[in-house]
Amino acid sequence: MNGIAARILELSSPLAPQPTGVEPVLPQIDGLRAVVFDVYGTLLVSGSGDISLTSGAAHSDAATDALVACGLPPGADGEEVVSRLKATIQADHQRSASAYPEVEIRDIWRTTLAELHPGQAAANVDVDRLAVEYECRVNPVWPMPGLRETLSALAAAGVPMGIVSNAQFFTPPALAALAGGDWDALGIDPRLCVWSFEHREAKPGRFLYDQAVARLAERGVSAAETLYVGNDMRNDIAPAAAAGFRTALFAGDARSLRLREGDPLVGDTRPDAVVTELRQILTILSLADR
């Protein structure tokens, strides 16, 4: 386990999902050969409901504590640090030609630190650790109940698994570490994982989903043969359905469930299934009794 993963574990503690009151809808969908997941609010309980860049979570104390943990005086009060961080993100978005741009959070922190500490004061800061220190404070995460069992059952059945997620560099090690092992133990194919920070494109845009469709096609699997599981009707279900996936809305945690009623990007899109526990995915694929 690398240092980033170890630090994520140190900063993490059990976090239970909150009931949604939603009833599951569990049709057995014939012909499914693969499953692709969202991460925050689906595979991981998310304290803020999503990765902090998407949820808007920001806390002044978290910023100052993160800087101090990395051996750097804040250089400004916490509110100023957060304000500069947000302004840097906004400026990065404005420079992008994408309708749904994503940032690389390490670049954002480097720019912010250069403003807070002109000169060489910030040159020796471990930006990877700083990003983790801040994220784990503003958006604590923990494995969703049934995560390990569900992934293990799908892997044992030979079902290819992938991910399409708004994410940062710390997302893959966080998922692996919190699930209790290294990435290989998850059974998720890294070639079927599409992370927003690697492409500077974010949900709800189609780009990430189209990337996943192309990668699945290389495995001989079509989008129509793939179940996409996510907790957000706008960011997950609508664009996944538009890309040709079958879809399951994950409604297992009130913090992260996003129904987006009346959102024009959702329109009349409806999921093919609704799951309130990850294990219910096995029922949809007719694997529950195996």
UniProtKB/TrEMBL annotation:
Pfam families: Hydrolase. The keyword Transmembrane helix does not apply. GO terms for molecular function: phosphoglycolate phosphatase activity. InterPro entries: HAD-like_hydrolase_domain (IPR051828), HAD-like_sf (IPR036412), HAD-SF_hydro_IA (IPR006439), HAD_sf (IPR023214). Keywords: Hydrolase. It is an enzyme of class 3 (hydrolase). This is Phosphoglycolate phosphatase. It comes from Posidoniimonas corsicana. The gene is gph.
